[in-house]
Amino acid sequence: MNFKGICFVLGYEELVDVAFGRASKKIPSEKVKFVSKTIRKHLNKVTRSWPNLDELPLFYNELINITIDTEELNNALTALKKSEMVINKLEKTYEKKLRKRIGKDASYQIRKVYYGRVKATLKRIRRELEFLAESRKRLIEFPEIEDEFTIVIVGLPNVGKSSILQAMTSASPRVEPYPFTTQSMLLGYFEAKHLRYQVIDTPGLLDRPLKERNPIERQAILSLRYLANIVIYIFDPTETCGFTKKEQLNVFQELVKNFNIKVIPLVNKIDLHGEQAGTEFLNSINLDGFKCSAIGKTGIDELREEIMNCRSTYEE
């Protein structure tokens, strides 16, 4: 799903400047019709460009619901449609007045009143225009998910999810040495044996119940629920991420408990603590997993091989 087709939304001042600025270059007899046509065309283009939420796949429908107020969205679109009709009615009313045999000064006064009423109509939807502009800005940042075999990377903030994505795929996510860098999902892809794999890096999860997670964390939950064929759960035993091993294990256990998905444990940052320490950590929590480092891509080939094997089993 690509939301980049949603029309750019002009604010109240911008729309007034565009419509009246261009109309000023027209001959007097064309000004009323031109102002009306310019504004109605933009309002119509905005409302028609928004997708019908009820027709979207469940993943995107829920993603929108946790990102913006959908009730306010519907109200804003309805307000724009009503304003479009009001401006169309004003055009017909004032065009009729201008068709009467009146002098130049009277025509000017009629247009002036018309302009005032159009501006008042647009001013009443100023807040709706601002809301739609901000909502569009959020939605066009959504990733365009492909219908491919999908690996979802999860873990607490700053455990190295984006770095592992970068090591596994051709993606170039922003990687910073502090928590909560990833505020939305990041995508990457790799190909092996003529098959394509989609890898999704999700916002960090915190050690708390699913129902208490914030909208950013819930993006990760949606990815697990609707997109994941395989999950890579990243542990950082160094605790340089800012979270204890116990907190990381709690989130892992909750994930396994709540989602019927193949989960691959991965110990990251072995360049800092060594492969043996990674093995000891996995043994201490009774898990089999992989030990990797995004730096130098240590263990990444073995991880991809495991994913390929899992896919073969999954598709049998």
Radius of gyration: 27 Å
Q: Helix content range of the residues, please?
A: 40-55%
- What's the overall geometry? elongated
Order of adjacent strands in the largest pleated sheet: 2-3-1-4-5-6
What is the SS-derived class?
alpha/beta
Oligomer: single chain
Biggest pleated sheet: 6 strands, mixed
Measured distance between first and last alpha carbons: 28 Å
Low-pLDDT ranges: 174-182
Order of helices and strands: HHHHHHEHEEHEHEHHEH
Number of strands: 6
Condensed summary:
The chain contains 12 helices and 6 strands. The protein is of the alpha/beta class.
Overview of this protein structure:
The protein has 316 residues and is α/β, with parallel strands linked by helices. The protein contains 12 helices and 6 strands.
Set out the fold topology.
Blueprint: H1 12-23, H2 28-49, H3 58-65, H4 70-98, H5 104-123, H6 126-139, E1 149-154, H7 161-168, E2 186-192, E3 195-201, H8 215-226, E4 230-235, H9 245-258, E5 262-267, H10 270-273, H11 275-284, E6 290-291, H12 300-314
Parallel strand pairs: 1-3, 1-4, 4-5, 5-6
Antiparallel strand pairs: 2-3
Give short descriptive properties of this protein:
316 residues, alpha/beta, 6 strands, elongated
